[in-house]
Amino acid sequence: MIKSSELILNPDGSVYHLNLLPENIANDIIFVGDQERVSKITQHFDSIEFSTQKREFKTETGMYKGKRITVQSTGIGPDNIDIVFNELDALVNVDLKTREIKPNHTALNIVRIGTSGSLQADIPVDSWVMSKYAVGLDNMLRSYLIEEHSIAELEDAFIQQTNWDLRKGRPTVVACDVTLENKIYSDKFHKGFTGTAGGFYGPQGRVVRLNIQDPNLNKKMDAFNHNGTRMTNLEMETSAIYGLGKLLGHNCLSLNAIIANRAVGEFSSNPEKTVNELIAYTLDKLIK
User: How confident is the model at residue 262, as a pLDDT?
Assistant: First the structure.
């Protein structure tokens, strides 16, 4: 029996942060960071049956061309992914009344649609990246027993090639779900190795008023290459999604609209168009 201090429920029985009951979500879920992007996806739906918001976590569930889909905003960062993932999993794999784990596991299909900055000159603004792998530059996944699912060979290569300071913790590399990868992939995508940072400024090499631990880290990540696997982009959620997905038995894929290219210093002149095209493409792939 899971203690009430470990899985907190609201007075109506919903999970604490997301304010959701099991019947409020579908098995196919789209993650977005920005709560305002939820409606930009569900405006394509034929109908919306449920909508709620608590803090930055906005949820809408409805029908798109005969398929029931939930769109969930996560906010920014691996710490928020930890909250969202554990509570969504509890909705389908824990009996919230008895607080016992259900005997039959339910696997969710989770696709992230996000924005990101490219680290390579040949991955231009307004292109799309599908994250084949993600490396967590934060330490969130190391709170769990992730070693069975992480890729030590890529982690070791990353540590060596970037001269990573292990005082910041060991980076964690996790792969996407192959079934979702095959379902959604087309030649519209660059397949990528995505870096997930625990912050927007110093952790991504930005300097405003504070000096950072390794001013050359971005250049070293740009140059990373292990048997043809290059770092493609940098954002703040994908490795947490992949790691918790593997640990909890859910199928996860991260798709990134490239709205900036840090290698050449460019920003998209119409980022909304790039994101909207990725949304429409993903929705139609999910129903097949």
Answer: 82
